[in-house]
């Protein structure tokens, strides 16, 4: 009876099929007449506008009694998650890219990086480490540059506000060597003419020293 009310014969379909969003394939409507975009998880559906069965979705009318209308859901009411237009089952592990791996859990998803996020500091045998993308490899890798290559690369991108032709790297200034009066603080920095790590010093004074008591005359 419903089919007789909604389906018309012969079929009258547009010449150009609709352009579907990513993750929504072209399927026949509920009358088996015209091609439409399949509805995805959580989208409204009815007899004509069918859900994407390739993702295990059916039109769920359980919420229609509450006045919200039917929506596409998993046939066994299993929770799932949608990423980039694709639906994954609860517990399913997937990789949106070669750099991360995710798992669908309770309608959401948790991801972990597959590339190491280590930090390489300058060392005597590798004073200028740099992380670069390697053709054919997913994860970037650390390489050691020679001093000439390092200075030439940074000289092209140096800002007019920088006094030295390299990106600043160094430690924080240490505490003042004296608790009162003039002392000095130290740090390790590469902000010098040759961009080499060196120990630098500067004067500091926490507070003036108290005045010595006046000497009694002999």
TrEMBL record:
InterPro entries: CCN, Growth_fac_rcpt_cys_sf, IGFBP-like, Insulin_GF-bd_Cys-rich_CS, TSP1_CCN, TSP1_rpt, TSP1_rpt_sf, VWF_dom
Coiled coil residues, start to end: none
Extent of the signal sequence: none
Entry keyword annotation includes Signal: yes
Biological-process GO terms, alphabetical: cell adhesion; positive regulation of cell differentiation; signal transduction
Location relative to the cell: Secreted
Domain spans labelled IGFBP N-terminal: 1-75
UniProt KW keywords: Cell adhesion, Disulfide bond, Secreted, Signal
GO molecular function list: heparin binding; integrin binding
Cellular component, GO annotation: extracellular matrix; extracellular space; nucleus
VWFC domain residues: 79-145
A Pfam entry, by short name: VWC
Function: May play an important role in modulating bone turnover. Promotes the adhesion of osteoblast cells and inhibits the binding of fibrinogen to integrin receptors. In addition, inhibits osteocalcin production.
Similarity field: Belongs to the CCN family.
Name assigned to this protein: CCN family member 5
């Amino acid at each position: 009876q419903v089919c007789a009310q909604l389906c018309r014969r012969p079929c009258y379909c547009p010449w150009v099929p609709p352009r579907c969003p990513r993750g929504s394939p072209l399927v026949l409507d509920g009358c088996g007449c015209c091609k439409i975009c399949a509805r995805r998880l959580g989208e409204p559906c009815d007899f004509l506008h069918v859900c994407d069965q390739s993702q295990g979705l059916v039109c769920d009318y359980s919420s229609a009694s509450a006045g919200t209308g039917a929506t596409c859901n998993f046939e066994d009411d299993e929770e799932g998650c949608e990423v980039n237009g694709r639906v994954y089952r609860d517990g399913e592990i997937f990789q949106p890219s070669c750099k991360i791996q995710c798992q669908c859990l309770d309608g959401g998803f948790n991801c972990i990086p597959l590339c190491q996020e280590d930090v390489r500091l300058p060392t005597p045998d590798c004073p200028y480490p740099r992380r670069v993308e390697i053709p054919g490899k997913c994860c970037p890798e650390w390489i050691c540059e020679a001093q000439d290559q390092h200075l030439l690369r940074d000289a092209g991108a140096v800002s007019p506000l920088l006094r030295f032709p390299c990106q600043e790297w160094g430690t924080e200034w240490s505490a003042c060597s004296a608790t009162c009066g003039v002392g000095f603080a130290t740090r390790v920095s590469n902000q010098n003419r040759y961009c080499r790590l060196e120990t630098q010093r500067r004067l500091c004074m926490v507070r003036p020293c108290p005045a010595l008591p006046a000497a009694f005359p002999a």
